[in-house]
Amino acid sequence: MIAGIDIGSRSIELVCLRDGERVLMRRLPTTFDPLAQIDSLLADVKCSAIAATGYGRALAAKALAQNGLPAVETITEIKAYALGAAALAPEARTVLDIGGQDTKAISLAGAGRVLKFEMNDRCAAGTGKFLEHVASVFQIAIEDFGAYALQGQEPLAINSMCTVFAETEATSLMARGYKPQDIALGLHASIVKRTMNMLGRVGLHHPVLFAGGVANNPCVVKLVTEALGHVPIVPDEPEMVGALGAALHAARLSVPA
Amino acid sequence: MADSEYREMWEKLDLDLPAHDALLEVLGKFYGDIYMSQQGRLQGMEYLDFVLSEVHGLRIKELQDAKAEGRKIVGTFCVFVPEEITLAADAVHVGLCSGADAGTELAEQLVPRNTCALIKSFIGFKLARLCPFTESCDLIVGETTCDGKKKAYEAFADHAPMYVMEVPQQKRACDRELWKSEVLRYKEAVEKLTGTTITAERLRKAITIVNDRRRALQRLNALRSANPAPISGRDALLINQVSFYDDPLRFTQSINALCDQIEERIAAREGVAPADTPRLLLSGCPMAVPNWKLPYVIESAGAVIVGEESCIGTRNIRDLVDESGETVEDMLDALVDRYLKIDCACFTPNDERMDNVAAMAREYNADGVVQYSLMFCQPYGHEAIKLGKRLDAEQIPSLAIETDYSMEDVEQLKTRVEAFTEMLVR
Ligand code: SF4
Ligand code: SF4
C-alpha cells in the first residue's frame, strides 16, 4: 500500500492507494501535537512508501523516516493539489484550493504539471480560518454557516480583508440592524472576491477544480460559480485532494526504476 | 588584535556595547548556519569568511587608522554615489549595510511604519548605536532614488552628517545635465571635506581601481554560467556584499584568485550542486548584509542561484567607466554617462531593466527568475508586475516574492520557493 498525508494547519488527511485505487481515507484535526495525530492516523496502516505535504511536511517526514518507513518524501501543497486534481479531473486547467489557513490558485498543464501559482501571504484573510472566525461570531457551527448565508438576499459589502476588522465591520452592521443573513452572505462574497483576484493572476482557464475544506461550503461554491460564469468541478471530499496528490507522488517513487 | 582593544575602539565610537555584543552573536550564528554549513565550498571563500568575521573588528580598525592619518570616511546607501570621486580625494568609501531587523522600533519614531525594511534598518542601526561603520563616517551620502529614502534622509540628518545627491528619474538630455551638476557638486563637497583637490591623475587612478574591481566581479559572474554551478549564490552574494566595504585593491586581488580556483573547478566539471539542479536568477531590491534569508531558503529548497540582478550584484558592476579620458572634465563626463546607465527602478521609463533581466536569464542559463521586493518598496513592487509579464512573454518562469527582514514568513517562503523549484525540475 502507498500513502499520502497532508499536514495542514487545521487538519491532517491521509489517503492510501492500492494498485492505484483509493482504499482508505481518514482525517483528524491537527491539534497542538500533530505528530501524535499522524501516529494515530497511521497506527494500523502498513505502507511501503509515503509522501507528506502541507505545512507540517518536513516535520512529518522526519518523524516517519525515524519510524523506519522505507521511502518518505515531501512535496509542496502546490504540487500535491496539482497531482491530485489531475487524477480526479484530467481536464481541469486551474485549481482553486481554499484551506484552513492558505488559499492557492494553480494553473495546470497536462498530467498535473504546474504552470504558475499564487498563494496568500502571511495573513489568513479569505481562508477557512476567516470563515471559522466569523461563524463563531454568529454563533453558528461552521458546517452550517454556508447554508445560513444562502438565506441572505442582499450581500452587504464587507470592505476589510483582515479577519479582525471584518469581524468589527460585521458586528457594527448587526448593531445597525441589518439582516444577519445578508451580513453572512457579504462575508462569503468577500472571500470569493479575493479568490477571483488570485485566479486572475494565474491566468484563469476553465475548467476549474475547487478543492480544500471551504469547497464544502455551499454558499462559497455558489458565489464562485457565479463569479466564474462556469460550474467548477467540486470533488467528493475536496479536502482530501492534497493527500491524494501526495499518495500519487509516493506511488511514482515506489515504482522500481 | 585582541578583543579588548576592539572593545575600547567600539567604546570610543560610542556603540551600545551590550546590544552590539548581542548583534555580533546573532550574526555569527546566522553566518554559521547559512554559510559554514555549505558543502564543497571554495578555498578562496576563507578570505571572505575572515573579512566578514572581522567586519566590526579589523576593518573598523583600518578605518580608524585611516582617520588617524587624516583621511575621511564617506558612507553611502546606494550605487549611484560615484565612488571614483571619493577615492580620488583620498577618502575611504564604504557602503553602509542595512540588512537586519535592528532598532526597528526606534526607527519607527522617525519614519512611518509602512516604510521598507532597508530604510528602517539604517535608521535603526544609527539610533540603537549598533553600527561602527556609521559611527566612523565623516559624511554620509544619500540620494533621491525613492520617496522613502528622500524623506528618511531629512529625519536622519538630525543624527548624522548627511549630504544628499539628486538623482534624476528620467534619462533625457536635461536629466543628464542635472546629474552632471550633481556629480560636480559632489566633487566639490568631497574636496572641501578632505582638503584634497581632485586632479586628472588622481581621478584616473580611482577610475582604474573601481573598474578593476568591477572587472573582477564581471569575471566571477561570467564563470557562473557554467553547469554545474561552480559557486553557490549565497557565496556570490556575500562577495558582492563585501565589495562594498572592503579595501578595493585587496578585494580585487582576492576575487581574481578565487576566480582562478573556479576556473579549475569548471575544468574538472565540479560544482556546488549537481548539473540537473534548477538554476535561478535573483532579481530586484538590493540585499545588504546580513540579508541572506531568501537566498538561504532558495538554496535549501534544492535550487542554485546563478546570478543577482541587483545593486548588490550586476547592477553595480555591469558597466565600466570609459577610461580614455585625458582631463578631469572628460573623466567626469565618462562618470556621468556610466552612472546614468544604472537601471534602478526609480527611473521612468525603465525598459532597459526588463531587457537586462531577460538577457541575464539566458546568459546564465537560468531556468527561472525569482523577483525579490521589500515590502512597501514602491519602485520594485511596481516593476515586479511589469517584469513578470515580460518574463511570461519570453516563457521564462518567474516567481515574485515580497518580504522583509523578519523571520515570521520563512515557512510560507519555503513553500513558495519549493513549489517553484518543483515546477522547474525537468
Ligand atoms: S535600487 Fe536604486 S536606489 Fe537602491 S541602491 Fe540600487 S540604484 Fe540605489
Ligand atoms: S527598497 Fe525600495 S523603498 Fe526601500 S529604499 Fe530601496 S527603493 Fe526605496
From TrEMBL, chain A:
Q: InterPro entries of this UniProt entry? A: ATPase_BadF (IPR002731), ATPase_NBD (IPR043129), CoA_E_activase_dom (IPR008275), Dehydratase_Activator_Redct (IPR051805)
**In terms of domain of life, where is this protein from?**
Bacteria
Q: Which UniProt keywords apply?
A: Iron, Iron-sulfur, Metal-binding
All copies of domain ATPase BadF/BadG/BcrA/BcrD type, residue ranges: 4-250
Q: Name the needed cofactors.
A: [4Fe-4S] cluster
| Protein name, per record | 3-hydroxyacyl-ACP dehydratase
Q: Where is the signal peptide?
A: none
- Its source organism is Oceanidesulfovibrio indonesiensis
> Matching SUPFAM superfamilies, A to Z?
Actin-like ATPase domain
Q: Which NCBIfam families match?
A: CoA_E_activ (TIGR00241)
User: Which residue ranges traverse the bilayer?
Assistant: none
Q: Which PANTHER family match?
A: ACTIVATOR OF (R)-2-HYDROXYGLUTARYL-COA DEHYDRATASE, BIFUNCTIONAL PROTEIN [INCLUDES 2-HYDROXYACYL-COA DEHYDRATASE (N-TER) AND ITS ACTIVATOR DOMAIN (C_TERM)-RELATED
Recall the GO molecular function terms of this protein's record: iron-sulfur cluster binding; metal ion binding
TrEMBL record, chain B:
User: In which domain of life is the source organism classified?
Assistant: Bacteria
User: Which Gene3D superfamilies does the record match to this protein?
Assistant: 1.20.1270.370, 3.40.50.11890, 3.40.50.11900
Tell me which stretches of the chain form a coiled coil.
none
**Family recorded in the similarity comment:** Belongs to the FldB/FldC dehydratase alpha/beta subunit family.
By its UniProt entry, which PANTHER family does this protein fall under?
A: 2-HYDROXYGLUTARYL-COA DEHYDRATASE, D-COMPONENT-RELATED, DEHYDRATASE SUBUNIT MJ0007-RELATED
Q: What is this protein called?
A: 2-hydroxyacyl-CoA dehydratase
Native organism: Oceanidesulfovibrio indonesiensis
